[in-house]
Amino acid sequence: MKFKVIKKDRQTKARVGKIALAHGTIETPSFVPVGTQATVKALSPRDLHEIGVQVFFANTYHLYLRPGADLIAKIGGIHKFMNWDNPIMTDSGGFQVFSLGLGKYKFKIGDEKTKVFFGQERKGITGEKLVEISEDGVEFKSHLDGSKHILNPEKSIEIQHKLGSDIMMSFDDCTPYPCSHEYAKLSMERTHRWATRCVRIHRKLKNKPHNLSQNLYGVIQGSIYEDLRIKSAQFIDSLNTSGIAIGGVSVGESKKEMYQVLDFVNPYLSEDKPRHLLGVGEIDDVFAAVERGIDTMDCVIPTRWARNETLIVSPETSRKEQTKTPCRLSIKNNKYIEDTGPIDQNCDCYVCKNYTRAYLNHLYRSGEILGIYLGTFHNVYFMTELFRKIRESILEGKFIKLKKKWSLQD
RNA sequence: GCUGAGGUGCCGGAGCGGUCAAUCGGAGCAGACUGUAAAUCUGCCGCCCGACAGGGCUACGUAGGUUCAAAUCCUACCCUCAGCA
């Protein structure tokens, strides 16, 4: 990987850069849609190209369970498997330690038991514990069939090597929120040990002849605690991975706390490494992250919202529509039944140029699959385009101006 | 015309003397969702008053009746559907 910072914003830490990879170059800042199962849900690679998506984010855990990393390797790697020849990032499965373990369960570190909370109970959780953490790694019970699987740093990286992604994440332990300092510290230290193991196995595997140029990002943890986040930033930065990811954010803490974490970490990250923010975000988060020096960020929001009747719009549009929450338009609302306007007045996407809210409303009401397709297309386009504008604004020295324009206040 | 089954809230469909303004679906109305166990989940969903607690009213084809008490029992009528003529 070659990473180059092309331009730095004068007033903020925002920067424009290029990440050159085996499958192409990513212009940053860039949004990274999530495509957990080797598909950005509802969109084809052709759509992604049309939208201008440069890279997306697949998942080790899911692809390992189905269809299996060996199968994908046998077929020629994830790019060939899914007909996408641009860059791909893969998550390590670390987040599933959190998301599958979440609920009213107890997390274990050795003999230490710490109670964790996560407000929302979700249907589909059987009440059974799907995750058991130990120093070696994590034992998962497959959410698909209940079978038991071990994921640890070595295995996660091996799988990611088999998948053949351009950027891999180190296997981390993502703590829930809230989380005691004591627990966060123990968990972070383990994440560091795991990161070291990831680096080691990555070096070993890198020498294998079949390997394309694959790159590893270390993942910073430490919950919301300043001392921990600093420690973690220093440690992960010292590992000399190609890039750095910030994890354990957007797990239930406030936005303010989340932005603080970025501020804590910032001074300790090498300028010449790309920084990825894991699992963020909404429009206001995007600006908050970019101005704190984030280069790439992945998030399920555009794709998931589109499946749940929520379309992303500009603050201007959402003000005009008096939406309950900024930048979200609930397309199924009965006020759009006869609305012949586009989703967003200022969006140039295929959907906004050719379809009315009335039609989208009808598709969603009817449960038609096309509604989800068009909605996803719009949402992903909207985020991709927003980042294009952000890049442009930084290059022109107008980032702050753009940020003000997109401000959710007033 | 005879025989049988049935008529319940926007729709489907439970309930078969009190705990029924009525289970449960669907539709409808709104909300949530941030490294995807998510095309998912949550709330509301007869009318009126109340911020809430709660209170009042009208309701289970229609009209009577029995009972302290009826969607639930009885009588008549009206209407559907199935089979036979």
TrEMBL record:
Region feature RNA binding, mapped onto this chain: 279-285, 303-307
Active site as annotated: 91, 298
Residues noted as binding substrate in the record, renumbered to the chain: 91-95, 172, 221, 248
EC number: 2.4.2.29
Binding site for Zn(2+): 347, 349, 352, 378
Gene Ontology cellular component list: cytoplasm
Record-linked Pfam families: TGT (PF01702)
InterPro entries cross-referenced by the UniProt entry: ArchSynthase1/Queuine_TRR, TGT, TGT-like_sf, tRNA_ribo_trans-like
Sorted UniProt keywords: Glycosyltransferase, Metal-binding, Queuosine biosynthesis, Transferase, tRNA processing, Zinc
MF terms (GO), sorted A to Z: metal ion binding; tRNA-guanosine(34) queuine transglycosylase activity
Pathway: tRNA modification; tRNA-queuosine biosynthesis
Note on cofactor: Binds 1 zinc ion per subunit.
Domain annotation tRNA-guanine(15) transglycosylase-like: ranges: 12-407
Keyword Zinc included in the entry's annotation: yes
Catalytic activity reported: 7-aminomethyl-7-carbaguanine + guanosine(34) in tRNA = 7-aminomethyl-7-carbaguanosine(34) in tRNA + guanine
Cofactor(s) required for function per UniProt: Zn(2+)
Top-level division of the source organism's lineage: Bacteria
Biological-process GO terms, alphabetical: tRNA queuosine(34) biosynthetic process
Family matches, as NCBIfam families: Q_tRNA_tgt (TIGR00430), tgt_general (TIGR00449)
Family membership noted in the UniProt record: Belongs to the queuine tRNA-ribosyltransferase family.
Description of how the protein assembles with itself and partners: Homodimer. Within each dimer, one monomer is responsible for RNA recognition and catalysis, while the other monomer binds to the replacement base PreQ1.
Function, in words: Catalyzes the base-exchange of a guanine (G) residue with the queuine precursor 7-aminomethyl-7-deazaguanine (PreQ1) at position 34 (anticodon wobble position) in tRNAs with GU(N) anticodons (tRNA-Asp, -Asn, -His and -Tyr). Catalysis occurs through a double-displacement mechanism. The nucleophile active site attacks the C1' of nucleotide 34 to detach the guanine base from the RNA, forming a covalent enzyme-RNA intermediate. The proton acceptor active site deprotonates the incoming PreQ1, allowing a nucleophilic attack on the C1' of the ribose to form the product.
PANTHER family the record matches: QUEUINE TRNA-RIBOSYLTRANSFERASE
Protein known as: Queuine tRNA-ribosyltransferase
The encoding gene: tgt
